[in-house]
Amino acid sequence: MTSRSRQGLRALAAAGAIGAAAFVWGVGIERYLFTLRRAELAILPAGAAPLRVLHISDVHMAPWQRRKQAWIASLASLRPDLIVNTGDNLGHIDGLRGVRAAFAGFRGTPGFFVHGSNDMHAPTPRNPLRYFLGPSRKRRAAPRLDVGAMENYFTEHLGWTNLNNAAGSIDLSGLRVDAFGVGDAHHDDDRLDLVPSMAASLRERDEAPAALTIGVAHAPYRRVLDTFTDAGADAIFAGHTHGGQVRLPGFGALVANCDIPLKQSRGLSAWTRRGRTVPLNVSAGLGHSIYAPVRFACRPEATLLTLVARE
Fold first, then answer.
1. Residue 8, pLDDT score
2. What is the DSSP string of the chain?
């Protein structure tokens, strides 16, 4: 064997070892490294007391995922003022059992929520390479999930407000927070035509103006972000992207499963439309499909946003 051949074999062996180590890390370790990301936004009226908003997304719960259930349950100790849940809570036909265990401690904490498509359809095996061809398509043969039971749990037991193509208001320590939301744009369930009238109806109420107006969506498609910005949202919350789920260190996300710019597929950024700029928080989420159990350079996360008064 020549020296060049030996060098080639050593290079292949090294690449194989690196690949195996990355696989073990992503499948066996990182997907369990649940992380709380913290940030601060100065968007409240002058003199307003701070509000702590817990943003949870893409839990993709299966009943056996007890570590994830326990970690989410531990977030109740943060005592947030408001919870924003941007969908895809279910990840299995019996996922609601795990969702109940995870969220039970949030009963009585005000919240807003929307659904993702995985709250309605069970996961199915997919070729991950297809995500490089563009956003995934509808799963026509996937079993239906009992999204109604989950919706009832959120509204009746936890007391959260349903924003699926709807609007609502919450009073938080004397501050009125208005919100409007849409269904999952990834499956064309977003009734964006309703957003302008929903926003107008919130503004036309007889009470004092809202201290804050937020837009809530599962999938941060550009058309959704543009519509929310035009409608007067002071901040926008979304999920869906999983932050790319597998990211390259130093580069970032390879895919987002929607048309948002890849650099905005995770974390806090700004969305500008017609000269108006609003904060956008896209959660990388806490879960993954049971058929793609991996996270690499993209830890599962929830976000605690502290909203403070503008200077």
1. 58
2. --HHHHHHHHHHHHHHHHHHHHHHHHHHTGGG--EEEEEEEEEEPTTPPPEEEEEE----B-TT-HHHHHHHHHGGGG--SEEEE-S--B-STTHHHHHHHHHGGGTTS-EEE---GGGTB------GGGGGGSSPPP-TTSPBP-HHHHHHIIIIII-PEE-TTEEEEEEETTEEEEEEE-S-GGGT---GGGHHHHHHHHHTSSSSPPSEEEEE-SS--HHHHHHHHHTT-SEEEE--SGGGSBEETTTEES--SSSS-GGGSSEEEEEEETTEEEEEEE---S---TTS---BS---EEEEEEEEE--
